[in-house]
Amino acid sequence: MNGVLAAGTYRCRDVSAAVSAAVDAGVEWIDIDTAPNYVQGKAEVSLRPVLDRHPRIGISTKVGFVPATDRQAAISAGALLGSQGDQGHCLSRPYIAWQLALSRARLGRVPELVFVHNPEHGAVDRGEVLQSLTSAFEEMESAAHAGLIRGYGVATWTGLSSGLFTVSDLVSLARQVGGRRHHLHAVQTPVSLVRLGVVAAGLEGAGPLYQAREAGLHVFASAPLGGGDVLGAMTAELVRFVDPSATPAQAALLVALSAPAVSRVLLSASTPAHWADALGAAAREPLSPEHLRKVIDVLGT
Q: I want to staple 18 with a disulfide (CB 3.0 to 4.6 A). Which of 100, 217, 270, 294 is the partner?
C-alpha cells in the first residue's frame, strides 16, 4: 500500500473520542492533524489526554489561521499588529512563533510536523504568496534549529492545483532559507475521487505528487472522502469498478491510498465502526497504476 491511514480532526465534534477510536481500532501509526482553528480552537486541548496515554503517536498541527477564540490573546501578546488577522489569517513571523508556542503548551509536546496552513489565503498573486512563504519558512527553520518543532510542511487546498505555487517552488524556498539540510518535510493537498487531476499528473510523472517524490517529501492526502460528498456519489456500479469486494467508503479510500507518492491519508472518522471499515481499505492491495488510469478515464479529472 502506498499510503497509510492517519487520523484527522477536521469536523470532528469530539476530538478525544474520535482519535481514541482510531487507536483502539488498531491503527499502528497515526498522525494527528490538528489546527487551532478547528473545533473553535479546542482541538489541541482535547487531544492532550490521548497523547499522554499514547506518547508514540505522531502529531502534525498547523499555523496561519486566526481563530476568534485566540485573536484577542494574540493581539495582547503583540503577535498580531494593526489589521493583521482581520481576514482570519496571518503568516507573519511573530504570529507563527506565538502559535507554535501555544500549540506546544496545549499538546504538551513538540509536534513532529507543523504545516503552514493555506498560504494562498487572501493572496492576490504568485509573488505575494511566495514572499509570505519565504517569511514563514524563515520562522519555521528558526524553530526547528531551536528544537521547538521537528519539521514543517505546507498544507494547501488550492495553492498547488491552481498553480499559484508548486512543490518545486517550496523546495527552492526551503533550500534558500535553510540550506541543503532544511526542515521542509511534507506537503498536504486534497486527493480523492473528485480530485483526480493530481493523481493523473502523478501517474504521468508530473505535478505535485511526482515533484514531492523527487524531492523526498512526504505527501499527506487530505479530504479523501471529500468531506463526505464522495460517499454520496459512490454508486454500486462505481464501487464494483474500483473494487467489487469493497464497501463504498473502502472503494473511495483506495483511490487516495493508492495514489503515487502519497504517504498518509488523513481521515476524520469518529466511531470504531468507521475506523474498522477504513482499515479494511488499508489492508487491501493498492490499485495498480493501470487500474487508477481506468478510473480516471471513466470519471475524468
A: 270
